[in-house]
Design goal:
The structure holds 2 protein chains of 2 kinds.
Chain A: H1 12-30, H2 54-68, H3 74-80, H4 83-87, H5 91-102
Chain B: E1 2-6, E2 9-16, E3 22-26, H1 35-46, E4 50-54, H2 71-84, E5 91-96, H3 98-109, E6 114-120, H4 129-141, H5 150-154, H6 158-173, H7 177-182, H8 189-193, E7 199-204, H9 210-219, E8 223-228, H10 235-238, H11 240-254
Parallel strand pairs in B: 3-4, 3-5, 5-6, 6-7, 7-8
Antiparallel strand pairs in B: 1-2, 2-4
The chains are: A mainly alpha, B alpha/beta.
Chain lengths: 103, 256
Amino acid sequence: MSAGLNTTEADPEVVAQVLEDVRAAIIEVIGEDYLLDFPIGMETTFDADLQLESVEFVALAERLAERYGEKVDFISWIADLELDALIHLRVGQLVDFIARCLS
Amino acid sequence: MSLLTVNGIRFNVQRFGRGDKTVVFVHGLVLDNLSSWYYTVANPVAKRAEVLLYDLRGHGLSEITKSGYRVEDSVADLVGILDALEIRRPVYLIGNSYGGLVSLAFARDYPERTAGLAFVEAHFAVEGWHDKMTAKLEFAGMKMNEAPVREWLEHKSQRNHERRFRKADYLMWETSLVDDLRAAPPVTEAELRALRVPVLALYGEHSDVLARGHELQRTVRDCELHVLADGTHSILMENTAWVKEKVLAWLERVGR
């Protein structure tokens, strides 16, 4: 596993809030029409579960980068991820990364 | 997503990172979009430069139009995007496959706005290219060609698959794309010789367009050619680390 994916503890309240933010951003990007009939949780994968197109993931990352600003360094995080890890990313990995930056 | 209206068309544009250079990435045809750069080289470059990614007309999340797929249209779109974003300083253009041809045409038409060119498996028109490009496109139309992030497609998830290929099919068969590309005039040796900016050329050893790399090296004054052993036309995905390393080292060198 890439170093960028380690999961040091973040404040659980922050994690819960970030998960909400990420859920909302996902819905904005893919639209309610396509939402699947299961909840988006930490174990949900962007590719297999959400069936997000790669170009939509980019749009999602942009929304989140705008939301959190300088506090969250998406560029360095994504730059350090291996392509395979990025493709098979889980919602929880993204949430943990953001929560650690905010905690 | 950031949608920017240029030439009456909505373009999906991503601008991030900062530094003393602006680096513009241009992706390939039909199934490709800005994500192939975002997932590979754009973020590492953005740690030290301003990066601009955009989806070509008809691709990714940019608007699809019935016509306007000539190389000069692509150049006009790019110029319009740079103007709309008020990017005035000369830019480094990094083009994959067909994106290389757009970059080359931009550099030819706007030398004062070009700081450097990096080609990854760039196609550019030479005599007989039409047949090759058309064959390649028809292959893409059969849903088998160079996916930007092939693993995504291997899942063939319903929604993903459906939307992406519906758009690709429309682009291939309902727009002027193929005819426009067939009509593209060949790039002349004189045009290549006239390039005054540093050029990086990355090709795969087994690529069907490797000859373009050798031609660049032979004709362009400052051209650095690297050939990846065992690589094919898809070197960006086959060996991302190699492409990334070469691009970062080149940007470091030419920026001095």
